[in-house]
Here is the input.
Amino acid sequence: MLETLRRIVGEVGRARDLTVALDAIVRGVREALDVAVCSVYLVPRAKVGQADAPLMLMATEGLARKAVGRVSLSQAEGLVGLVAQRAESINLDNAPQHPRYKHIANIGEEPYHAFLGAPILLRGEVLGVLVVQDRDPRRFSDDQESFLVTLAAQLASSIVQAELSEAVAHPASGRKKVVGEAIRGVPGAAGVASGIAVVVYPLADLEAVPDRRCDDPEAELARLEVAREAVRAELAALRLGMAQRLPDEECALFDAFTMMLGSESLFAGMEKRVRGGLWAPAALRDTIREHAEVFEAMDDDYLRQRAEDVRDLGGRILERLQEVENGTRDYPEHAILVGREITVTHLAAMPEGRLAGIVSARGSSSSHVALLARALGVPAVMGASELPVERLDRREMYIDGYRGVVHVEPRGTLRGELERLVREEAQLSAELAGLRDEPAITPDGTRVHLYVNVGLLADMAPANNVGAEGIGLYRTEIPFQVRENFPGEEEQTRIYREALAAYAPRPAVLRTLDVGGDKPLGYFPIVEDNPFLGWRGIRLTLDHPEIFLTQVRA
Here is the structure.
């Protein structure tokens, strides 16, 4: 069951719109539980949290397809409404005998007696109900109920993300609009800002690649061809190396990869998408997804597993594309970094003076990046799990770090109100600047010293500009995080000298290397069940005196 859960959740996560996501759910659940019917009812997004919110049939396998989008129940109606009202699962062996049973004509529901419904909940609010039904009067097993409840819980954020992705991609359509609507996360760093979203994504992560238009299709196709040849050479070298250690049949995977690289259908799909206006990474993403889904739909288990090989090949090509892209990325004047997970490396790559804010689908107010945002004086919204990241590149965005709210391309009155907030924020900052050099003294005469929390050399100018009296904490792990290997003694000495010189003769406190948890080193992986309570900070450096002593000398 666990593998089935992962497969369904993964398929939904890769869906490009709500309809595809919901169809994947009902098809996958019906097959996994071997039932006659699986349906999804959703609350309209604008009415989530309201007691009188209706539940609309949005997808089904087993009932009449013509009922989709037409059948609607209040939360006071039927067993589906009861599941939503109680916000808990209901398992019945003979649904028509239940006092809350409601017969809906002409949808083909009459033959079904067994009923199991699970609420789809996100942050305590009912988004909808996932239902399975079967002909014979029977209670579903505990394992089946646990499966449905677990799946409903895992699907909640994926459904919302698919809904938002569709609405952001097609704001003018008749479906629910979220352009301008509030997308909620948690406050990471105070402030209000507007700017242009710049989506950043991990290396070789196809699903995180953002949509972006290209102005020069020929240049994008040339990039794809260069990446293709680079991967071909890489695979040939790997094949040669493995052939010395393994028999030919074990090296067949490399031959299969090479054959796929030569597949004209694969690259014809990419070319078609590029000529349609997509940049190379997004064309690669969509083509690889399309081919992987063909394998995933096959009955043969061996062939289904080949979907992962297709994605592996796509990841290799993307990695080569990114080698070129990383040297050519351009940042708008007021850039808002957006990503599933923003890292210190992303911040370090940002040109000085261009960062307006940060929005991350993951993380919390205590995340390392949130702390850095405060040090840099830019607003941040963390944990915005509903954010359709891949649809937001180069979109206008307003972020409210006080409330943890993001608005994409707001319009009308809302836009005017947000612009007013940005102006007021700038005015407040200007007023506070007038107090910068005043001593910090409480009404009863106690002197308070105000220090800064820094880690990047880029932090120094903003911190100095707000009148800090010294460095309360210099996080030495940050220079380690933005490099591809451990910095040597001379390099560390230079970094620390520059930090101290920026505040001389004011006091400074430097902390030795503190990595682990949400502060990993890409070149020094630590694999633990709970990295936050494990081998981190001083525990790590005491076990590696060569790292510790080099830093202390520096």
Remarks:
- Confidence is low (pLDDT under 50) at residues 170-179.
- The first helix runs from residue 2 to 14.
- Residues 421 and 427 are 10 Å apart (CA to CA).
- The chain has four domains: 2-169, 182-201+331-433, 206-325, 452-553.
